[in-house]
Design brief:
With about 280 residues, this protein is mainly α. The chain is about 75% helix and about 0% strand. The protein is built from 11 helices and no strands.
Length: about 280
Amino acid sequence: FTIEMTPFMSVMSALIFAFIMGIGIAYLPGKTLKNAFDEFQTIVEKLISYVIIPLLPVHIFGIFTNMTFGGQVQTILSVFAKVFVMIIVLHLVILLIQYSVAGAANGRNPLSLLKIVAPAYFTALGTQSSAATIPVTLRQVRKTGASQKVADFAVPLLANIHLSGSTITLTSCAMGVMILNGQTPTFSIMMPFILMLGVTMVAAPGAPGGAVMAAAGLLQSMLGFNETSVSLMIALYLAQDSLGTATNVTGDGALTMLIHRLTSKKGIGKEEDVPA
């Protein structure tokens, strides 16, 4: 059976509403509205963590069963394998760029910095959550030389707004699904999607798979994905969600070092904060 539920508002309306309310709540001194939205956030996160994510494998299994019956699985797996390899390569490229810039700004070897932050990468592989990896990221970032004040501010903030790995994954997976559907991913189609995705990722919850759930509306409204395409997208994304999350938190270390470098010139991050 099917239960039809009309969305309360369009994707763009929801994004604009979310940003207006977020900025307004941060500006106003009152706590009533903030507490209400905090509780609403908890409801949404639990819905994703305990209902949607656990039931997704069943739904995706049904999709692939239908595709197997139609003889499409071999083509799909072939495309997925190529996309998977491309995603890993792009993750490595973005990390090398981030740490090269951070290393150059701080006069450090990028590879040695990557080695220091590596425990956060491997922790994120297991937890699949940037928020759950914050304690490890904080500890390792402090070892790179970032001050305590800067690390305590930057790492939790970046865990919520810096999702370069997830954005790379979503864009690559979307292109793969478009190719399967006979569409051609062009610059004019993908660039607006990438820009909107960058905004949407700020609203992505910290639950595993939260990024693809937040992007589902954009996939339908901007790329014209139907329910089957969105299901394929979710399947492909969840297969390597841990790699995207690991890239996110590892990149947080490089950005924190850049923030430390900028703030140290203003006397915010002092050398006595750096551990021996």
